[in-house]
Amino acid sequence: MAMNKNTIFGWASFLTFLVGTALVLLGVLKYRDYAIGFSVTGIGFFFISWVFNALKGRV
Asked: Which ranges does the record mark as transmembrane (predicted)?
């Protein structure tokens, strides 16, 4: 199975979404003192994931 550009962008989008979710959950559940920093970083990862998803089929 060969991976083309769209497959790579799809996997990158999925993995960055997972990292963003993990960061938000870490901030909310484990490190309450640093919840704002973790959440802002996680939301940044969500936006990067959205951009990767939007690039599928365009590059």
From this structure: 7-28, 34-55
- Enter the tokens of residue 31: 């490190």
CA angle 13, 19, 24 (to 5 degrees): 125
CA dihedral sign, ordered 23, 25, 30, 33? positive
In contact, 45 and 16? CB cutoff 8 Å: yes
What percent of the chain is modeled with pLDDT above 90? 68
Residue 59 near residue 23 (C-beta atoms within 8 A): no
| Residue 53 burial (10 A CB sphere; 0-12, 13-18, 19+) | middle
Q: Which of 12, 39, 37 is nearest to 25 (CA)?
A: 39
